[in-house]
Every structure is written in C-alpha cells, then in structure tokens.
Amino acid sequence: MHVALQSPSESHKMDVDEIVSKSCFSMLEGKIDSKILKALKGMGLEKPTRIQAEVLPHLLQGKDLIGAAKTGSGKTLAFLIPVVDNLLKLGTLGKLGTRCIILSPTRELALQTSDVLKKLLVNIHLSHCLIVGGEKRAKDILKLKKGANIIVSTPGRLLDHLQSTENFNCNKLQCLVLDEADKLLEAGFQKHITGIIKLLPKKRQTVLFSATIGENVKNLARLAMRNDPVIISVSDNKMSTVSGLQQGYYICPVEKRMSWLYKMLKKSKKLKVMVFFSSCRSVDFHYEFFKVHCKASILSIHGQQSQARRKEAFHSFTEAQNGALFCTDVAARGLDIPSVDWIVQYDPPSDPKEYIHRVGRTARGLNNRGNAVILLRPEETEFIKFLEKEKVYLDKYTFGKPPDEVQEMVSIRFNYRIDGFITQ
C-alpha cells in the first residue's frame, strides 16, 4: 500500500475550519450522538483541541487516518469520540462482539486511555475492558468471555489472547487504533502488531497516532492500512515544545545535586513536581532517601515495580494537588497528569527527543503554563546544542546556593545511605 497525503474535499476543509473557528463541541449537535456531547460536558470540556477539530470530520466518516500531534494535544478523545459514535450508529448490532481495539505501548498509557473511555461511556451502554500485562490471565479471560465492545490493550497480551483464548475472536472488528505508534515500535512491538493484524478482519478502519511520522511509522501504516490514509499533522515547525513552557538548564556538579534537589523539594511543597532519573535503581535510591529525610509527599514509579504499585502511584499523583513523583521514562510518554508545575530532569535523557516527551508533562492543554529544568554536569553542556538541533531552546538558570547546613546534612546522610545501599 502506498501511504500518501489524501487531499480532503472542499466540504471537509470547511468542516475543519468551522470547528476550529467556532471552537465549541456544541456545534456537533446532530452530527454525533447527544450522549457523547453530554459526557464531554460532564468532563468539563467545551472546546475541541486543534487535533480533535482536524481529525473528527474524517474519523466520523470511517476513513483511515495517520495523526501527528504533540503529547497533551487531546488525541485520546480525538479517536475515542468517533469510535464510540460509530458504534452507537450501529444500534444493537454495535453491542455484539468486539468492535474496536486500541493498542498502547505501555500499561500506564493503556490505563489512562481506559479511564478516559470510562468517562465518555458514563451514560452509554457499550462495554469495554482493559487487557494488559501484570494482571492475572484468568481475570482477562473472564472479561473477554463477558464480551467487550471496545478493548484497550498492550500488544503482547492481546496477541496472546487472540492466539490462545477460546471463544475470543474479532471477526466483527470495525476499528483498530495504534496509539503512540512510534513508541510501539521503539518498545519492540513490531512482530506483535504484525501478528495481531494477521488475525483481524481486513475490512476495517485503521487509525494511527504518533508524535512523529518517520519512515518506520509509515512502514507500519503500510502494513496496517488497506486504503490511502488521510494524514493530519498539527506540529509546530518553529519550536518543538509548547509556548507556555518556561524551560532552562542548570549547571550543577554531581556532589551538589542532592542538596539542590533537597532544597527544590522543600521550596515546592505546595506544587506538583515530576523528577526524572536515568534508572529504576536511581529512582529507588533517591525515593528512599528523600522520603525519610525531606519529609515531603513523594511517590515513585518505574518499570520494575509491580503493576499494582505503578497503578496506585499513577492514580495517587494524578489526583494529588501537590507533591513529587520520582520516575523513569516509563511515565514520560503519553500519560495525562494534570497541573504539573515543574519538570525536573535530574539525569539528562539519552536522546534529545526524550527531553521533549518528558517536558510534555507540563504546560498541557489550552493557555496552560509550566516550568522545566534539566540538571547538567559541567562536562555535559554539549547536550544544549543537541537540543537546539531539535528546535528546543533553553535559558541558563541560576539558583541560590543551599545553606551550608543543608549541604552538610545531605552529604552525611547520602554517604550513610550509599554505604548501606552498596552493602545490600
């Protein structure tokens, strides 16, 4: 299949322009089910984001689509609204069997998508279920036997059920959504997705969303789509991060970082802060240290934790008004955590693109603002040039020196903790 940019008809262009200019979901009255509009209103949503306004006219007509949009752009509802509306148009037929599958690269993103779907279906009699690794397989089978019109899943677990779970089939599937397609590929799910596609009906709508549309994503589209898709991109070519984000870097020697973070957490007790570390072990070490010695509200999340613990930490931080979340990049991609005031990159990412995904946790939505700082050692300043190549421009930040007693306290307790950590 040749993936090409499909030129929308003049009427479709007018639809998009109308939605964007009026910027109000109420204008969709009579075009989508009233129960969806009621649910959106209940969620406090009145205006569509740009990506929602761009893709809704095409997805509501059942077209295949590739969408490129930044994290926090509202793409989850951009595909959920037409998925639900198209199933409702089937009437009672839409309630028979699995009609839509949404694939996510991580359990956390799948959980978030499932939560948004649950809110959208509050007054709608369509069934849905979440199928991810880390849960008992027997529990999954029970959900699937009960029937689920919409399944949100990670690729590995879904393929396992498609191949081996009795009475689970998707013969009536109408829509496949590949969310965060670039991350699906980065996570090594190419073979799983290929296996899934082979087991699904060829006649279906396929929707693919990605932060970027590189050649690898286009190859995935060629595999998944039978028709030339509409390609929608709402990326800003001037800057790779949102305009409401104040971001900078701070040159901080290794021996000063613990005391700097200690002071940062103390100063921001009334704020919501995410702190990124380079490894699961580093998250655990700093979490244990600051939980005891900083007496701040701190949570942690990384890939080696149990699914139950990750789920609890994600929900707790999402609902919290303040506090800190220590995490690895498992929490950086696609998750919608509201009202994050500061992103602290304690360890720089290995890839400049990962910087963009990390800071995408703050300054989200319309007219929102946020702050981000990355700590760099004196020998790491070249990283700034790599970011500039990705159209990310940082200010140089200065912070007041922590009091000597703080530096001394952190040094003593750090040495004590690190000795114990190494001895274990």
From TrEMBL:
Keywords from the named record: ATP-binding, Helicase, Hydrolase, Nucleotide-binding, RNA-binding
GO biological process, one term: regulation of gene expression
Residue ranges occupied by any DEAD-box RNA helicase Q domain in the UniProt entry: 25-53
Record-annotated Helicase C-terminal domain positions: 257-410
Pfam families (alphabetical): DEAD, Helicase_C
Iron keyword on record: no
Annotated motif Q motif, positions: 25-53
EC numbers for this chain: 3.6.4.13
SUPFAM superfamilies reported in the protein's UniProt record: P-loop containing nucleoside triphosphate hydrolases
Domain characteristics, as noted in the entry: The Q motif is unique to and characteristic of the DEAD box family of RNA helicases and controls ATP binding and hydrolysis.
UniProt-recorded name of the protein: ATP-dependent RNA helicase
Organism: Chrysodeixis includens (Soybean looper)
Lineage, highest ranks first: Eukaryota, Metazoa, Ecdysozoa, Arthropoda, Hexapoda
